[in-house]
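The protein record reproduced below.
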Amino acid sequence: MTAESTVPSPGGQPRDPGFSPVSLSSGSFSSGSFSSGALSSGSFSSVSVMPARSTAAGFRFPARRPPARPASPVPLLAADAVAALFGALALAGAEHRPLLAGLLVAASMLLRPHLNRPVPGILDELPGVCGRIAVAWLALGALVAAYAPQHALSARTLALGFLLQAAAGCVGRGLVHWRRRAVRLARPRAALVIGPAATAQRVAAAVLRHPRCGVRPVGIVSERPEGGETLPVLTTGEEVERALVQNGARDVLVVHPSVRSEQGPLLRALAESGCAVWEIDADAPSYASRDQLAGFACRRLEMGTRRRGTAGKRALDVAVSGTLLLLVSPLLLVCAVALRLSSGPGVVFRQERIGKGGKPFTLLKFRTHRPVDEHEAATRWSVANEHRMPWFCRFLRKTSLDELLQLWNVFWGDMSLVGPRPERPYFVGKFSQTYPGYAARHRMQTGITGLAQVHGLRGDTSIEDRARFDNAYIDNWSLWQDVCILLRTAAALVRPTGS
């Protein structure tokens, strides 16, 4: 895309530095950096787009480890199955007893809870366990009464079966929870605490006083020590690496709100190395939360490092882009011929853009404006209604037909149909320094359209807003969300505004 002026005028406010360990965020985690010459003629220093796994002189991430496996559901399933069989003893003398016992076990398995969080003990889930068992027995009684009224189960049989299964289920699940608590106490998970040193030390000390949490803080990641620390303060990337490797840290506790915005690359890097990232509310009273750690409210932060369904996203890209290329090939030919006749040679415009992980690629568009030189093409911001454009070029930009050639980029894997819009190296460097979260957009494949675009953020609009919408899209990505964005984009084509 080309532009009217050399100095961009996007909306939004620049970054307001808060808690920002410079030694961790600027030098140690540099990767995919652009040289100052590539960004401008000395205007900007080297800028990190995404933290690399390994750099020549910076922080090296440990080899990607598989994420810590959650507790296996098999023991609880076995306990529920045994309890159902024990409750089936109440069916002694009933017709088709083996069939009824099988139905009871099946109902108990289907009604089992799908919890994504650990349960402290059987008392915490006792109402749910008894409720599910009662539903299973009532369903079994209703089924028998409906299909074989002469063999309907009596109220005494239903009550006795419920009591037997409930008692056996509580004992079995209680033993499983007891065993898991013993394992957590004997082998707690090592954790790093990130935030201001004083707050991090306070939270770490509280967690250490409650070993039944199953978490053992081993280090504080902060800008500088504040004196009187009981745990080592890690201020460089090498120290963080050493703590990860030597202690096998698998959890990260974020104890200050500023960490998420100022240390996003660090958190994503730790998540990529296999750590679970938790946000801890260190103040009391805190917000309501179902998860607790040593009395602190906490919640799991999904850093978007590993998303299921990426193969489906690529399949959607190939299928849709390939089909559209076949369907619109006559239109592409017409546009190319009209551009050649109205504007002369040079129909296709090729420009370097930055894709996933800071990797450059060549973006294809129909040429709607001719910059004076390469420097202008690389550093001028986009304006939708360039008054010097021929009428046909203005028409292409207004209808977004100049973007159709990017279907080739999608088909070959440089881009996706849906994702953050790619930008030139100069502006990636400038915006990464100015707007929080901009560099984090590059953790997903760039796209032709995206959540920001369907919310009207195209052309000369707020970069801060774009970055926020793009990161929201990445953090909550799903294949269905891509389909919805594509449908909304198609609907928006009837009211084009340019790009």
In short: The chain has 18 helices and eleven strands. Residues 310-343 form the longest helix (34 residues). Residues 1-60 have pLDDT under 50 and may be disordered. The CA atoms of residues 353 and 424 lie 5 Å apart.
